[in-house]
Design brief:
Number of helices: 23
Distance between the termini: 41 Å
Structural class: alpha+beta
Number of strands: 5
Helix content: 55-70%
Strand content: 5-15%
Shape: globular
């Protein structure tokens, strides 16, 4: 994409200056007169399709994505093909072509496994489960979502991991599996702290409110709903805002305020007409029928039930639930072994590359290649080499993940320059404390750091983590941050014999989630 943007600039054009219908003309011109390779022409069509979707030209957007696929080839364009397949599937669902969407999910799952793209495979499986959810078969949807369990630790995107857990949570709630839902929502709450997505965080609160309502804790449910924040402007936030309205209406009904609930649902019904989601319309009709029944307006309730029945019948005709049955689940089950082999091959390849190239690489690379320029700690490139070396020699180690609490507010309120000073001081204290303790300190990214303690017990790691946490808490931050202080949260785990480092980091990350969720400024181990 960068090459194409450079060509556009060299042609005297500005891709950032156009929007709406002008953007469609711009990218069509770029495809015909600027793009020279098949991949660049496909990229022009993908961008044009995005603008067409914003302009509600849904069918044309679908046609352009299909045309983009014709320009791409496997395996060299596998990543871009998967991106197009997922975008195409979403638009087909929005357009009511559930059969076409399923074909895209099936194709994407195969391509993802064949080319080793774990996140793309997860997206495809979740898409199939979503179709089952839309049909109303939550048990079958749950079986699809559970296909992700065995590779949960290999998902690289935290937001994708949270989405998958939220889908499972929604199924548990629909199936009245309250115990399982209560356990899973705690994990979702911890993970949402580290995911900067207001829609996903809002979903966590929505499902928590549903659980409170099921337990007749209506005041707590309303309090949860009042805390939801989301930015308007996309289909996901529109869905969330309408679902919040439905849940508020249920709570009002439980509080013997059916008239207010009915008014709220009627106003939502007018909004849903513009949104045109059959699944949401079905939920709305069911809600209106329930509220009218409670209000003894049985004739109106019957009308809404009839309308819900028509929507549900139409969905059942359009969604190819038969193709999402046992044969499709068996196909995914066959992939499970292949996915394990992919993860194993990645680890073996890392070990082999380390064996063949480590001495040559260490001799050739300069110190700055392995050093973070802001903090002078080791960087992620160094970390990759170090972890491969530890695996190669079967050296035991503890892994510690350190994250600065509320760092975003420091940047927002005091400036990024002050934020950088805070990071530098946290890093300096890190290297000073661990300098003579057989540890390696890494700036993993942003305000997050890793410490590798070789041949350490969990108790020793916890002691050092607590000492360092207290050191940061007591540090003289006044000259840098004024009246506010600074704390860190720390997650710890031990590497287990025979496991890859990805799983070790996943467990340490989970411990960090818990430290954040429990109030921050503390140490948790997994």
């Amino acid at each position: 994409m960068e090459v194409l943007l450079n060509k556009i600039t060299d042609s005297g054009l500005d891709a950032t200056s156009v929007s709406g219908e002008e953007a469609l003309i711009f990218w069509n011109h770029t495809r015909q007169h600027v793009a020279t390779t098949a991949q660049e022409k496909a990229q022009c069509l993908i961008i044009s399709a995005e603008f067409r979707s914003e302009l509600k030209q849904l069918q044309t957007s679908i046609d352009e994505l299909r045309e983009a696929l014709d320009y791409l080839s496997l395996p060299e364009d596998a990543e871009l093909v998967l991106e197009v397949c997922h975008g195409l599937a979403e638009r087909l669902v929005e357009n009511g072509d559930f059969h076409g969407a399923l074909n895209q999910y099936i194709s994407a799952s195969t391509i993802a496994v064949d080319n080793g793209f774990i996140d793309a495979y997860v997206l495809a499986v979740l898409g199939m489960g979503n179709l089952c959810d839309a049909y109303g078969d939550h048990n079958r949807a749950l079986r699809y979502y559970q296909k992700v369990d065995s590779i949960d630790h290999a998902i690289t995107s935290r937001s994708l991991r949270l989405r998958y857990k939220l889908y499972m949570l929604a199924c548990y709630i629909e199936l009245n599996r309250t115990t399982a839902a209560t356990e899973l929502i705690k994990e979702c709450e911890e993970l949402s702290i580290l995911v900067s997505d207001k829609v996903l965080s809002g979903q966590v609160l929505l499902y928590q409110a549903k659980l409170y309502r099921q337990n007749q804790q209506i005041d707590l449910a309303m309090q949860c709903l009042s805390n939801v924040q989301y930015a308007a402007g996309n289909i996901h936030s529109t869905w969330l805002s309408n679902m919040i309205r439905l849940e508020i209406a249920y709570c009002l009904s439980e509080q013997n305020k059916p008239h207010i609930a009915n008014w709220l649902l009627e106003s939502t019904r007018r909004r849903v007409r513009l949104y045109a989601s059959p699944v949401l319309s079905l939920k709305l009709c069911d809600s209106l029928a329930a509220i009218c029944t409670q209000n003894n307006d049985y004739q109106t309730a019957l009308n809404y039930e009839k309308h819900a029945y028509r929507i549900e019948s139409d969905l059942m005709k359009k969604i190819p639930i038969g193709e999402l049955g046992a044969s499709q689940l068996r196909r995914l089950s066959r992939f499970e072994l292949q996915l394990k082999l992919i993860l194993s091959e990645q680890e073996n390849r890392e070990l082999k590359e380390t064996t063949e190239n480590q001495k040559h690489t260490v001799a050739k690379l300069q110190q700055d290649v392995f050093t973070d320029p802001l903090t002078n700690l080791h960087n992620r490139r160094w970390l990759d080499v170090k972890l491969k070396d530890l695996l190669l020699h079967d050296d035991p180690f503890a892994l510690m993940v350190v994250d600065i609490d509320h760092f975003k507010s420091i940047n927002d309120e005091l400036s990024h320059l002050v934020g950088d000073k805070a990071i530098v001081n946290v890093a300096h204290e890190l290297s000073t404390y661990f300098k003579f303790r057989g540890a390696s300190c890494v700036r993993f990214g942003g305000e997050e750091f890793l410490i590798i303690l070789e041949r350490s017990t969990l108790e020793q790691a916890e002691m050092h983590a607590e000492n360092y946490r207290e050191r940061i808490y007591q540090f003289g931050w006044h000259d840098i941050l004024g009246e506010r202080g600074l704390t860190v949260s720390i997650g710890i785990t031990l590497h287990r014999e025979g496991e890859n480092t990805q799983r070790t980091f996943y467990r340490a990350d989970k411990a960090l989630y818990r430290a954040k969720a429990n109030g921050r400024n503390q140490v948790c181990s997994e």
